[in-house]
Amino acid sequence: MENTVEYTLRMKKELNAQVLVVGAGLAGFGAAVAAARNGARVLLIDRAAMAGGMATTGLVGPFMTCFNNNDDGKGRDRQLIMGIFDELCRRTEEKGGAIHPEKVEGMTSYCSYLWDSHRHVTPFQSEILALVMDEMLEEAGVTVLFGVTLCDCITEGGRVSRVIVAMKEGLCAIRAGLIIDCSGDADAAWFAGAPTVLGNGRGTMQPTSLFFEVDHIDRDRFLGELEANRHRLNRHGANCFHWIIEEKKKTGEWTIDRDELGNYEQNLPGRWKINTTRMAGVDATDTAQSSEALREGRRQVQQVLDFMRENLPGCEEIRLVQVASALGVRETRHIAGHYTLTVEDIMEQRRFADSVVSFAYALDVHNASGGGVTFTCVKDYYNIPYRCLLPRGVDNMLVAGRCISGDSEAAASYRVMPACCALGQAAGTAAAIALKAGVNPARVDTDLLRKTLRDQGAVICD
Ligand SMILES: Cc1cc2nc3c(=O)[nH]c(=O)nc-3n(C[C@H](O)[C@H](O)[C@H](O)COP(=O)(O)OP(=O)(O)OC[C@H]3O[C@@H](n4cnc5c(N)ncnc54)[C@H](O)[C@@H]3O)c2cc1C
Q1: What single string gives the DSSP state of each residue in 102-162?
Q2: For the whole prediction, is pTM greater than 0.70?
Q3: Could you tell me if the CB of 378 is within 6 A of ligand 1?
Q4: Strands 272-275 and 262-265
Q5: Cα–Cα dist 58/375, whole Å
Q6: How far is the CA of 256 from the centre of ligand 1 (A)?
């Protein structure tokens, strides 16, 4: 079958910006706010109807820890992700939509009764978060367009000259001096021809999940059961209610490839985010595969609800509040950038002269088959160099969020939302500096970048 169609299209519209940010998840939000606050004229586009990415359309939460990994609980905790992320948490808390992470401890209902790398998470309500993001983007002067999908890049001489997007008006073009790819899947980099690696490079990616939210749980009985079993908890991969799930697996009443109920209470007491469905072997850059994963996810949501209702104390009257509209995708493409962060860089705490983010969440690898999680804590913190944000072969592009240049195991740590926001802030700040200096992102003065980030609240540990 002929699969090439050649045609000439008269664009209905051409938009332009100094900086185009693709994707309004935590990374794109951080990038757009930072670039605009540092003087750039910014256009932020997203295919969805709201900002937040996984945090809103995916209902994923809480924000995983933004503190160093100090597990002794003796007051040597240090918040590593500050800047725009901290502002977002504080402003969402002021609106009654979050609890600031400094007030949240491990082994509580907010973090599914885990301690390692789960202290100081941020419980939040997705709807309020989206509202605060709208406000912060507007205050920074960012133009935001929803319902806009990037579907191609036209490149000339190693630069993207136009981005092609699908929107209500049809196919349109955007001209931008610089592009920051925060699509999660490295779509812009991929369409521009930059090298990328899918998953671990051997076709394996972390499994997908579909989040949902519930209420009407008898909180005292539900938490009472967990408190009575504290000695059986803090087991990554087989944690809350594993003693019931293991029994029900034997009788065939539990068929999901997961050995625990991931339950995260929000700032609203009695409302939980549930992270328990699992669809493995899904390449989410393939539309047919992600569509089937969404359907299977919705079926599994009903199975989990039935299981909770019948087997878990306090869940007899449980009520489904909402199911995520976006599939929870942990991993797809990583760019192959100017530097690739490795798991050894993380575990050996290697230092880099161009570090822009310091982070400390564990290597949280959801096994690609057979259920379970391989969870490896990191020492105190590690650093991510600026070069991981630079795709090869495309001179006017930066990348932020889960698709930066790192190996699959390294990404299992920095893929979580606080790091993505900080990576976005670094990319947005670098873009503004590059524009002012009239240079490509690869030629940005990284001492100036690091100083600007620190002056604007970021923590970078040397
Ligand atoms: C099941 C699951 C559980 C997780 N648990 C946690 C957790 O508890 N805590 C935590 O902190 N992190 C967690 N994570 C990780 C985290 O949610 C994501 O890795 C993180 O949100 C990625 O941020 P991002 O900004 O890079 O991408 P995303 O949040 O995915 O945002 C990308 C945005 O780009 C848009 N987009 C994509 N392609 C295009 C295109 N072509 N054109 C226009 N727009 C586009 C999307 O609509 C989206 O809004 C979890 C992830 C999953 C999947």
Answers
A1: GG--SSSGGGTT--TTTTT-B-B-HHHHHHHHHHHHHHHT-EEEES-EEEEEEEETTEEEE
A2: yes
A3: no
A4: antiparallel
A5: 23
A6: 23
Domains of the chain are 14-104+122-204+331-351+385-455 (3.50.50.60), 212-323 (no CATH)
Which two three-digit tokens encode residue 379? 């020492």
Interatomic CA distance for residues 433 and 452, integer angstroms: 9
Give residue-wise pLDDT tens across range 330-380: 999 999 999 999 999 999 999 999 999 999 999 999 988 877 899 999 989
SS3 content of the chain, % helix, strand, coil (to 5): 30, 25, 45
For position 199, what pLDDT does the model report? 96
CA 275 to centroid of ligand 1, rounded, Å: 15
Q: Is 300 left (phi over 0), alpha (psi -120 to 50) or beta?
A: alpha
Name residues of the chain where pLDDT drops below 50.
Answer: 1
For residue 402, the cross-strand partners are none
**pLDDT per residue over 36-47, tens digit each?**
999 999 999 999
Count Cβ atoms within 10 A of the Cβ of residue 298 and give its class: 0-12 exposed, 13-18 middle, 19 or more buried.
middle
Provide the angle, in degrees to the nearest 10, between the axes of the packed helices 26-37 and 417-437. 30
